[in-house]
Amino acid sequence: MKSLTVLSRDWKCELAALVKSAQTQIIISSPYLTSQGSAFILANLRKRVAPKIKLRVLTDLSPTNVCQGATDPAAIRTLWHAVADFTLLHLPRLHAKVYVGDFRCAIVTSANLTAGGLGRNYEYGIRVSEHRFVKDIADDIRD
Q: Which residues pair with residue 128 across a beta bridge?
């Protein structure tokens, strides 16, 4: 596997692989998160892993985002109920879209965790698998 891969419109296949391979932790940074995004994550999360995985979600729960439907609290609640260890962080003005699995793989992309981001929009990004870079990305997002 290359340590750096360019992702275009079909980037969600890479996100699915990241989620499917995660054993201990997934970090999601997406300003907008809807039911299509949470359903995508749960459809790709292995059932035997869900009870023990740590899921960290950074999103923007600003009233404007919620009222406009860009971020759906019910979608976040669905994720919260599906995993044993869930952390939600509200970060106003969040713009970064980053997905990290087990510190082994990170995806940095223009795509939110929404129907548009997963398929309707033209998105672009990179997948990083070089451990030191993945760790730096994960540490930066967690901080």
A: 4, 106
How distant, in Å, are the alpha carbons of 4, 45, 87, 108 from that of 83? Answer: 29, 10, 10, 23
CATH number of the structural domain spanning residue 30:
3.30.870.10
Residue among 38, 45, 46, 100 at smallest CA distance from 73? 38
Q: Which helix (H) or strand (E) holds 54?
A: strand 54-59
Tracing tokens 């990241």 back to the chain, one arrives at 18
Q: What residue numbers bound the domain in which 101 lies?
A: 4-142
* pTM of the full structure: 0.93
Residue-wise pLDDT tens digits, 84-113: 899 999 999 999 999 999 989 999 999 999
Cβ neighbours of 119 (radius 10 Å) = 15
